[in-house]
Amino acid sequence: MKLxxxxxxxxxxxxxxxxxxxxxxxxxxxxxxxxxxVTALVDNACGFAAMTISPxxxxxxxxxxxxxxxxxxxxxxLIARGTVKKAGKTFIVCxxxxxxxxxxxxxxxxxxxxxxxPLAPRISN
Amino acid sequence: MKLxxxxxxxxxxxxxxxxxxxxxxxxxxxxxxxxxxVTALVDNACGFAAMTISPxxxxxxxxxxxxxxxxxxxxxxLIARGTVKKAGKTFIVCxxxxxxxxxxxxxxxxxxxxxxxPLAPRISN
Amino acid sequence: MKLxxxxxxxxxxxxxxxxxxxxxxxxxxxxxxxxxxVTALVDNACGFAAMTISPxxxxxxxxxxxxxxxxxxxxxxLIARGTVKKAGKTFIVCxxxxxxxxxxxxxxxxxxxxxxxPLAPRISN
Amino acid sequence: MKLxxxxxxxxxxxxxxxxxxxxxxxxxxxxxxxxxxVTALVDNACGFAAMTISPxxxxxxxxxxxxxxxxxxxxxxLIARGTVKKAGKTFIVCxxxxxxxxxxxxxxxxxxxxxxxPLAPRISN
Lengths: 125, 125, 125, 125
Prior knowledge:
- The structure is a homotetramer.
- By secondary structure, chain A is mostly beta strands.
- The first copy, chain A, has one domain: Thiol Ester Dehydrase, Chain A.
- Chain A contains one helix and six strands; from the N terminus they run E-E-H-E-E-E-E.
- The first copy, chain A, has a six-stranded antiparallel beta sheet with strand order 1-2-4-5-6-3, with helices on one face.
- The longest helix of chain A is centred in the middle third of the chain and has 17 residues, at 35-51.
- The two termini of chain A are 27 Å apart.
């Protein structure tokens, strides 16, 4: 995320927002942000949201995600939002949204439904 | 839906709610409503929600859906909610939720992200 | 499955096939098998496939599934196939297919990608 | 794809294979290829596979994809395979697979089920 200039803009229990300025290096051939970049940011937002309600030190694996692309990712700022929908004993189900800010207005560009799996980190030594 | 005793409880532009009383004939071996029944109701709610914003007479095809199951479907009433997330030129993306009412409290049992495709009905004659 | 007249037609390690004769009671308004019935059979095929590679007595929960509908489910026999794609420590990822046999020819009607979670049964009492 | 050093290794009607050497710049904090990179390559392989069966000059939009992550993406070469499952009048449904080659052996790292939408390019002036 360092490379993208992304910032953790808001962190609440079960809800996280990441923002990233538009970056020409991350565009596809039409000049929109690449779908993979949008997916990565929303996946991260979901993972962080899941972490906010998990014991400290847990890693968060993405078991699977499903993304619908709603509009081209053009604009000045990408906002990725992750929200915990349900925290079960084993999984955490999250929804994620990506919006682009263009001339002060939000445009919905993608929506995600994901399954996260908290994992105690392996001790190596 | 007739067979299930399901009712279209609420219809607004882009949002539909279907309710169905618990029905022992639709349960699986643990006594919960079968996942397929839950899926069918939420799929219907999404399809109807998409219809509310489409020209009259269009049929609504489900291109695909993705469902996360969140809790067993036990309780007295199943409520399936469908909401239009984004209506594009060709597709309509909907989110759906299933909750069970048990002793007056809602429990979230499933969440859906679906792609609908409005289709002009074929004229047969 | 009893109600549907479905039969476990083939069971191998990691692969299961269920067949079901067309049944007018399970159709939607166009006379095709209902998408929920197709989904249920493929979900079952995936769950059984996952069981074939799990310790005896485990229950199999469907964490989530994603289904693409490819063609109307018309014909004489529905075949639902479930195959284990990957068995991890915690989850089992399966693919499922539904085909209809019509006048001796197979037609692909749906395809599924699902996450299963084996669970030791709760001892009651 | 230029940036990643990815190559279109195989193109057949309805099936495409892209290969990419492991690239440290595309890894996450554990040193595996980032899930977004894996997703992007498989998405591309699915899009190209859909193009191989579409009229020349069509653009291919990803309506939605669903990805299950099966193993960490470590190894020397990433292979992304896209295959057309069903070409309908409006959509093309594809399956995609990602494998890593490590010491000559294939390891399955991700599986995708995606909906593609062929679109005639807009003529601009």
